[in-house]
């Protein structure tokens, strides 16, 4: 396990401007990543629940960084992602855990599950991730 790689991925994630709106906390481990995001009314659709785009973001981010934990030289890219919305959420937090289920030279497959603050499963997803040609350097926030 390369703890330095995991911390650099977490810092890269924290520095992404999109996360200013979500205030997430990411923890990366070998083949796994956990993401906790507070529910905020600015994430709601017209009916008062968290919009599906937020579910996608937390699931994709958890799966993406689980895959990224296994690739130390270049970034990975999401090439496909399926999502199942199971239950609405309108308060508390969303916790998503991603895990690599298949790692081969051409692609990685990772799954993620999200829960509300009471431990109810609210969504799940799976995606494929491909190694890119984008090197992990300080210029992309990997420091």
Largest sheet data: 6 strands, antiparallel
The CATH superfamily is: Hotdog Thioesterase
As laid out across the biggest beta sheet, the strand order is 1-2-4-5-6-3
- Spans of at least 5 consecutive residues with low confidence: none
**Count of discrete domains:** 1
The shape, in one word, is: globular
CATH class membership: Alpha Beta
| CATH architecture identity | Roll
Mean pLDDT: 96
| Annotation, overall tally of beta strands | 6
Oligomer: single chain
Could you explain how this protein is built, in words?
It is a single chain. With 143 residues, this protein is an alpha+beta fold. The chain has one domain: Roll (Thiol Ester Dehydrase, Chain A). Helix content is 21%, strand content 41%. It contains two helices and six strands. Strands 1-2-4-5-6-3 form a six-stranded antiparallel sheet. A hairpin with a 2-residue loop joins strand 1 (25-29) and strand 2. It is globular, with a radius of gyration of 15 Å.
Q: What's this entry about, in short?
A:
The chain is an alpha+beta fold.
Tell me the layout of helices and strands:
Layout: H1 3-15, E1 25-29, E2 32-38, H2 52-68, E3 74-85, E4 93-103, E5 108-116, E6 121-135
Antiparallel strand pairs: 1-2, 2-4, 3-6, 4-5, 5-6
Notable features of this structure?
143 residues; alpha+beta; Thiol Ester Dehydrase, Chain A; six-stranded antiparallel sheet; globular
């Amino acid at each position: 396990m390369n703890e330095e790689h995991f911390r650099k991925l977490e810092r890269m994630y924290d520095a992404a401007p999109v996360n200013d709106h979500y205030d997430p906390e990411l923890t990366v481990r070998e083949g796994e990543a956990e993401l906790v995001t507070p529910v905020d009314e600015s994430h709601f659709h017209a009916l008062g629940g968290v919009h599906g785009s937020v579910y996608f973001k937390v699931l994709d981010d958890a799966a993406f960084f689980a895959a990224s934990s296994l690739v130390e030289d270049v970034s990975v890219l999401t090439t496909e992602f399926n999502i199942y919305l199971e239950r609405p959420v309108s308060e508390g937090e969303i916790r998503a855990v991603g895990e690599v289920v298949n790692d081969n030279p051409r692609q990685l497959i990772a799954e993620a599950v999200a829960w509300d603050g009471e431990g109810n499963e609210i969504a799940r997803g799976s995606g494929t991730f491909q190694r890119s040609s984008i090197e992990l350097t300080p210029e992309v926030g990997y420091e």
